[in-house]
Amino acid sequence: MKAQRGAALSPLLLAVLSVAVSCAAARAETSQQKGKRIVDEAVAALGGDAFRNMQNRVESGRIYGFYNEKISGMAVDTLYTNYLAHPDPSVPGSLAVRVRDARGLKQDDVILFYDGTGFEITFHGARPLADLVLNQYKTATLHNIFYILRERLGEPGMIFEAQESDFFDNKPVNVVDITDAHNDTVTVFFDQLSKLPVRQIYSRRDPIDHSKLEEVSIYDKYRDVGGGVMWPFNIRRERNGEKVFEMYSESVEINKDLKDSMFRLPPNLKILKKEQ
After folding, report:
1. What is the pLDDT at residue 1?
2. 144 CA to centre of own chain
3. How far is CA 42 from the centre of its chain?
4. Which of 213, 73, 95 is nearest to 144 (CA)?
5. What is the spatial distance between Cα 3 and Cα 120, in angstroms, rounded to a whole number?
């Protein structure tokens, strides 16, 4: 019997055609288009507009420092991050964030980064941080995937290029190279299921001996911290394959009533000699 014209396609044939169309669309997508799509999906997974418009964040927990894979220090830490207004247009290389890193149960050992300056505050007074420390902080911030996704997406010259898919921690990931106008590249691994960033890599030169340093950050234990914004509670950093830092947050809060004075030096505080 001849098939009737206009007869409905079978479910199996529909499925085959759907896969074929999807594959054709994937082949038509360039690596840069795919990279931008993956990055856009990550922003949406992190909370979309709620993430992009996050005003501030308070992370409290324990931090560990490591040397030669052994713990070299531990502290109770509260990290206050205050975002400034989005510059329009984005200014390459500028920092639109202020940070107060308060350690100890009484939060009486403080490091401030704001407006291109930095100080370590103790009961002795405020000591300006060495230029080397300031430059490392700026470099680390500009190459942090969460800062990139919140602050740098509209920066002129940013390129997002998808690489071959991979596995990380036994989970499939999408890999994207994010390159700015200065040709600095951060390679980011996004979980294919959750769309969230789970690992990032960038390389820099040691400012002293100019040797290559591979900086790796790993993000885990995401939770909703308010308004649909997702944030990792476990963060690990490695340098040239060795663990150098871990933070285990016990609480993360966003959009708190943080006073501007928290991110500036108290008046009449003694200024000590600058670090060398």
Report:
1. 47
2. 4
3. 11
4. 95
5. 82
Q: What are residue 246's DSSP bridge partners?
A: 64, 236
Query: Which domains does the chain carry?
Result: 47-263 (2.50.20.10)
Closest by Cα among 173, 230, 170 to 201: 173
Rounded CA gap, 235 and 197, in Å? 12
Q: Are strands 166-168 and 125-128 parallel, antiparallel or unpaired?
A: unpaired
d(CA 123, CA 148) in angstroms, rounded, equals 35
210 Cβ contact list (under 8 Å, min separation 6): none
Question: Mean pLDDT in runs of 10 for the chain (276 residues)?
Answer: 53 57 65 98 98 97 92 94 78 87 90 93 94 94 97 92 97 97 96 98 92 97 97 97 96 96 93 88
- How far apart, in whole angstroms, are the C-alpha atoms of residue 221 and residue 68? 25
pTM of this structure: 0.87
pLDDT at 68: 86
* Helix extents (H) in the chain: 11-28, 31-46, 49-52, 131-142, 145-147
CA 167/CA 172 separation, integer angstroms: 4
State residue 24's pLDDT score: 56
Residue 76, helix vs strand vs coil: strand
